[in-house]
Amino acid sequence: MKRVLSVASEAVPLVKTGGLADVVGALPAALSGQGWQMRVLIPAYRGVLDKLGKTKVVWSDDDLFGGPARVVLGKVGGVEAMALDAPHLFDRAGGPYSDGQGDYWDNAERFAALSWVAARIARDGVGDWRPDVLHAHDWQGALAPGYMRYWGVGIPSVLTIHNMAFQGRVGANKISALRLPPEQFTPDGYEYWGDISTLKAGLTATDAITTVSPRYAEELMRGEFGLGLEGVIQARAASVHGFLNGIDPEVWSPDADPHITPFTAARMAGKARNRAALEAEFGLEVPGPLAILVSRLTPQKGIDLLPGALEDFIAGGGGLAILGSGDAWAEDMVRGLATRYPGRVGVRIGYDEALSHRMFAGGDAVLVPSRFEPCGLTQLYGLRYGCVPVVAAVGGLADTVIGATPATEAAGAATGIVFHPVDELALRQSMRRLLSLYADCKGWAAMVRRGMKADWGWEASAARYAALYDSLIAP
């Protein structure tokens, strides 16, 4: 079986802060049926080694960016995983990237070390295991293809951009600390407006670039999405590919979800019971459609558009349940909405995985008004649970939701509401559209069933990743 080493800053079920972890954790099992064995390398943050269970040391170094380190190999969920155990870098009480007061001061060194080890494993192997391809994720793993190129390692690499907003930018005074060759500090290397960009180092060095949706791959060539690296993406356009993320159909399965009253597209009675339970949980009484929002509360997610978009929706009988956390102003704003619309808007600050399942099961529609969204999983969960997506026409949202228009409705193809541009007026009009579609009971039920029957698992995307790997190692 062919081998691929995946290097990332997080992976389920070992550690998760966002969708990156879902992708990195899902790919190994999905690829096993495609003739590829994937091992994942992540940092051994505090608690990770306990989750790996029985392990063995497969690599060590007395001085990895300031201290001793080792790589241990274990299994989790039947998948082989490696953890970089470097206590001076990763054994900390806070999260993977920050301590709650701000980002760690040495994040550049921490993830350069991760990339360095990945490149060493690609070059030398561990035991009798050596990868045929290295697959790096985001800025935290992006230096791995860079080191490989600088060292002349003849193994192909892939770099996936999950979110271009995070570019690993640090001052040029870190060149030596990150063990980078000074001669590559050029516009064609890792130099970025006088600084270092670890993401750019990977983009200019890797053999192939992937993003997590076809639309996002195209958007990254434009300034508003490329965020200063659009020229690099344009120059490498022939090597850029967009592969949609998938979801785990066993974890997200309305007919077998332990958190809810089960239901299926053919037997929807459980959906109504879940809605009643959700209204009770949030203290709501909603005569019309019950929308949900499960999101980080940040400008990227379009949270600031809600106050001006809700008034007509609430007046028309709608309601909204919100789960999320983020910027202080945004948390205060959604609390204010609950005060302004008692019994119609309910808020939970924070994140609760079980509650999110109950919200998708009980909600009629899920709002995703993001200004940019590389792929998005929220709308896929909504489709799976009969919770109709109302989404902005960006990135993976546009790739996965078929907007209700006269043409798509006549063809019996619509699965949601898609709006553009991403502003308050467009969202307000979409909420009005939601009211009218919901009032058509027969048409609404048909749209819900179409969304539930769509397959958003990993099989198709895993096949595309496997085909890309195969093309890179082809003679």
Automatic annotation (TrEMBL):
Protein name as catalogued: Glycogen synthase
EC supergroup of this enzyme:
transferase
> What is the role of this chain?
Synthesizes alpha-1,4-glucan chains using ADP-glucose.
Domain named Starch synthase catalytic is located at 3-234
Q: Which organism is it from?
A: Rhodobacter flavimaris
Give the range the annotation lists for the signal sequence: none
InterPro entries annotated for this entry?
A: GS/SS, Starch_synth_cat_dom
Family statement: Belongs to the glycosyltransferase 1 family. Bacterial/plant glycogen synthase subfamily.
EC numbers on record: 2.4.1.21
This protein's UniProt keywords? Glycogen biosynthesis, Glycosyltransferase, Transferase
Source taxon at top rank: Bacteria
Q: In which pathway does it act?
A: Glycan biosynthesis; glycogen biosynthesis
HAMAP family assigned: Glycogen_synth (MF_00484)
Q: Which GO terms describe its molecular function?
A: alpha-1,4-glucan glucosyltransferase (ADP-glucose donor) activity
